Amino acid sequence: MIMHQKTGKEVTEILEKASDENLVIRVFYHSKYEEPLEAEREIEVYKFDKRYISGFCRLLKGMRNFRIDRISEIELLD
Q1: Cis bond leading into 36, ω under 30°?
Q2: Of 41, 43, 65, residue with least CA distance to 53
Q3: d(CA 57, CA 70)
Q4: What DSSP line would sit under 33-53, residue for residue?
Q5: Residues near 6 by beta carbon (within 8 Å), at least 6 away in sequence
Q6: Residue-wise pLDDT tens digits, 47-64
Q7: Which of 21, 23, 53, 67 has the smallest number of CB atoms closer than 10 Å to its CB?
């Protein structure tokens, strides 16, 4: 599946919808500490603010916080 980079407004709209409706997003994320450092991840979004997403990462099988500025691509899954 091809993901495209989004503007800040588009990212916020996707995150709001995912958070409000308990939906899953797919992102390409650049981690500073966890292997793999760059990976496509599916996240069940529980909440977000201007800097962070909190949710369940299906790749790492656990709750994680993700910095929004480390997301290079994002899409909402069905």
Answers
A1: yes
A2: 65
A3: 15
A4: SSSSSEEEEEEEEEEE-SSEE
A5: 14, 73, 74
A6: 988 899 999 999 989 999
A7: 21
Tokens in use for 40?
């496509």
Query: Please, are residues 54 and 46 in contact by the beta-carbon 8 Å criterion?
Result: yes
Measured CA to CA, the distance from residue 65 to residue 52 in angstroms comes to: 6
Cα-Cα-Cα-Cα dihedral sign, residues 53, 55, 56, 58 = negative
CB contact at 8 A, 76 and 3: no
Residue among 45, 50, 56, 48 at smallest CA distance from 23? 45
CA distances from 70 to 21, 38, 78 (A): 23, 10, 23
Output the six-digit token pair for 60.
């790492």
